Amino acid sequence: MILNRPFPLDIPSRQSLRYTFYAALCVFLILVLLRPFGLDELKSPILLFHAFLYALVTFIFVTANTLLLPRLFPTVYREEKWTVGKECIHMCWHLVPIAIGNWLLTHWLYKNSLSWHNLLNFLWITLVVGVFPLWLNVLLKQQRLLKKYQSGASRLEEQLNQPVSAPSSTEPVPEQVVFISENGKEQFMVLPGEIRYVTSADNYVRIYFIKDNKPASQLLRNTLRKAEDVLSPFPQFFRCHRAFIVNLKVVQHVSGNAQGYKLHLQGVEELIPVSRNLNAQLAENLNRSAMGKKQIPTSRDRLAEGRRQT
């Protein structure tokens, strides 16, 4: 069902404020050019001023919703669970405070009654006028983003399947990764080829790796930023999301939906998301990782190699 399909959750930003400004501008232009609801009886200077006030109501209430709702309901506003249906409900909710604001503004400007009947009329008119274009915009955006990221994922897949000779590196790379807890009391060592990804978990990081051909994990009290510093000598590790660092050498497949790219890792069921502002960097790092790509040695491989040498 299309309402259950993934949809990107826009976090408050300058871009979202710009879209809110455009919405308010549309309200202003509609009122000035079409002059509905008896506005054609107003003289031009008064009409422009009243149209500006109604546009300002739209801007203020949509901005307040955009900034406050994710902070008030953080468990609801999570991108991994955001869908087309939730986006449609979120957009329609914008119309409710706008209708209430217009109801109060109309009372102040034209001395209309503050009755429940008038309020219901404002809610009805606002919803009827706004619901269809909002839903249509959401559905069209979902289809556009889906095609965009599916096409981009196909190009990234081609990069994964076209390894070339890797340039030689003179910089020594440590054989093991050593993670140390924030208080310095715990230590975890693992081969870089065994790591699949690292993710943040409140005040901890969890390292997912393969041990004896089985998935395993280790929890340490630390920040993802510190884990990123520890992994910096190993070029295959890439922070693809604010909550994930991934080993690009174990990426087997790249898929895409309206939220962006998802990385499928060897031996891992979870799909790793990629932040949309890191798409170009992902392509560059995947290309670098694919150069001379070969089987990453695990502890078992190193043990076998040691036996052959002896």
UniProtKB/TrEMBL annotation:
InterPro entries: LytR-like (IPR046947), LytTR_DNA-bd_dom (IPR007492). The keyword Membrane applies. Residues 179-288 form the HTH LytTR-type domain. The lineage of its organism: Bacteria, Pseudomonadati, Bacteroidota, Chitinophagia, Chitinophagales. Gene3D superfamilies: LytTr DNA-binding domain (2.40.50.1020). Residues 299-310 have a biased composition (Basic and acidic residues). This is LytTR family transcriptional regulator. It comes from Niastella soli. Keywords: Membrane, Transmembrane, Transmembrane helix. Residues 289-310 are annotated as: Disordered. The chain crosses the membrane at residues 21-39, 51-70, 91-110, 122-140. PANTHER family: STAGE 0 SPORULATION PROTEIN A HOMOLOG, TRANSCRIPTIONAL REGULATOR-RELATED. PROSITE patterns: HTH_LYTTR.
